[in-house]
């Protein structure tokens, strides 16, 4: 029976015989243990022995194999000169035996060593910042891959990981993340070394884009993988990776400790490239703490190491850090020198995201200098210079989000990029440039466009980073290698598409009917030229789009968040005028917090509803008036109120079209107390409608006429979805009845009777009571009836909103009668699959090759009522793709939805002690239905809201509280 030593010997592949086979195994063991000098010594000794043998194709191939592996170790040790020599010699030897006779096994071994050599060269080029050349090496490796016998796809996965790292080096985070996730989902079990490397890459991508909890989770899983492999060096490298996450999170003490520990390891094992990365990070920490002397010493040490290694991009990152420190010391000339030197490298190496970072740093230093010193007559020129740097760079950084596959990732990226846009708005205010403010607001309000035509593309094969290397971002560089290219089949491609909603840049916003000018056109052109990134699409939308609403005075109000709250407005429809407003962030946030405290929180359940109904600010007239005044003082300019009064006196009640920013999307604008002396509310001066982003209309949506006020017998039906029965949920459960027992509410029965008397209704009903709590109203039925043509759609039922912090408004869902086996994009809940906004938008495109977009499966009629909890919460998100916007995308002209969670009539009975004969929710449903039958639905609903307000002031009874009726808003494009 063989002993342990014999087992170990038997595990060594028999390729060349001893001492070479045993030497290969010993060197790999040293490399796993991070003893790189010992590994190099073994390979060099074997290479000397091989060179003493008589020359032959077999001996040349042996030498090529040894040199390829030696290059790998030298790359780990950041001995770039030695690695370049080994790679070059290996390739020469491989080429010299390429035409020599060899059997199938020999040919496969030759291909494997060639792939490893190509990847080592790609790593070398990537480390030195020659990214295009590195990509060309990966392309060559990918071209060779079909010849290589790789049945389980291990080499393909390794090569795919390499491509992920190259994308990370270019700061193309969205593409890198998408490819990494696709690779990880299809990774063969035998790719045990690739899995932790992929997890490490994902951890760093998440950290770089502001998602710190997922980053730490990925790195923890990577650590488990490295421990299982016994990869000591990789485990120590994770210290620096974790330090990077802590640094990005702002935990400087933890980051310093982790980087110091990693530095000691790298210095001990002579991994000077990774040591330079740690010194760079520690210099940043020292600068943040005000220790400029220590920061300077660490920066100088890091820069010297990177320059010796020839790592140009990493050296440029350190130069940029040094430029910031020079500015803080007051050495402007040195700051300019270092910043320009860094930008020159980024420009030469074609890393536009880094160029944008340099331009933003210069713009920020200009702003800081303007704050510190008096520029006198040169101030305007200085501000213009800062804007010329800041606006294109901010546009490019914001546009980088379109690379990400999910709205959550894009929302987190926007948080990082928001500082740049806040700088732009501050500079525009400093210049007192209303025209620029208007164009900034218009561009930001246009909204991202849904990218239905974007299909997943198989990621090109590319280089895998070594498990033991550190991968930082803008302040930190990586070194490493692996082997093997990748291809993706249809399943992986579909997975990439269905991971989330893809978006494209917003349309151009044409600023005037009399000219061809589009918003920010000079800055957009500069951004696209400097940073090679698409900022706007080819589509063009008008700055002013009122459709048929210009027969009356209309004011379009748009708000955007950029630290402070910025507002623009402009009149049309026979009135003239415009203006801008600016709300300081602390005042706006205080008002918004007060409103949130008065509303039932989405995650608070029954207790939140109890608080809102019993003791919230909207439950008592005095506290409600104080809240309404607080909101008006923080959010509404007195100048705009004065204009509304003037227009109203001359031309009648105007229409106010408001496109809110996410921060103020729940504000009930109708309630604002715009005149404190007489408690005048905005709804008393004007009708109010909410507008969705200009990009919300789909080209797939058919044009539909506005419904006739008096439909004839051949008219399309009104679709009534009234409190549908959700499979798996009893009437008294969380997704149970919202309207109570069918037939028990005379107001709702009368509503259905009126619809039956007026014309066709779907579903077909024998009695009005048959319209409630039906079990046959699923998504397929809804698709059939909408595709057949509908005048209107009224939905009263459960709506599940998406959490704002998740960033994915498309996860909001209606609850129809769909069972768990129904095809859809939302996860089942018990015995039920919700119909999500993602379904309404994407349809079956992610699920089938012949899939159809949602606008064709569920074409929306001109008017849609979605009466459910926070059904209109779309605009609380940076990307508005929730239920209300989805209906507009699918063809609706007007959607009545709710801003927050609605109290049911039962909640009023139970919490406020109202008699069962008083049904506030039923009254609201009837009011919305009546308004949607009226030629002017906005005006008709506004009249009902004014009646509620009068009752509230007069009697102060809870059933008249704005808690219910002020939640309703009409949303139009």
Structure, explained:
This protein has 973 residues and is of the alpha/beta class. It is built from 37 helices and 20 strands. It has an 11-stranded mixed beta sheet, with helices on both faces. A hairpin with a 1-residue loop joins strand 5 and strand 6. Helix 4 packs parallel to helix 6, helix 8 packs antiparallel against helix 9 and helix 35 packs antiparallel against helix 36. The longest helix is centred in the middle third of the chain and has 25 residues. The N terminus is likely disordered.
Topology:
Blueprint: H1 4-11, H2 20-32, H3 36-51, H4 57-76, H5 80-96, H6 104-127, H7 131-144, H8 154-169, H9 173-185, H10 194-208, H11 212-229, H12 232-249, H13 252-268, H14 272-288, H15 292-309, H16 312-329, H17 332-349, H18 352-372, H19 379-399, H20 407-431, H21 434-445, E1 449-450, H22 490-498, E2 503-504, E3 508-510, H23 521-531, E4 540-542, E5 554-562, E6 564-572, E7 578-583, H24 585-598, H25 605-614, H26 621-635, H27 638-651, E8 655-659, E9 673-675, E10 680-681, H28 682-685, E11 687-691, E12 718-722, H29 746-758, E13 761-762, H30 779-787, E14 792-796, E15 799-800, E16 813-814, E17 835-836, H31 837-842, H32 854-857, E18 863-867, H33 883-889, E19 894-898, H34 905-912, H35 920-933, H36 937-955, H37 962-965, E20 968-972
Parallel strand pairs: 3-4, 5-8, 8-11, 11-20, 12-13, 12-14, 14-18, 18-19
Antiparallel strand pairs: 1-2, 5-6, 6-7, 9-10, 15-16, 16-17, 19-20
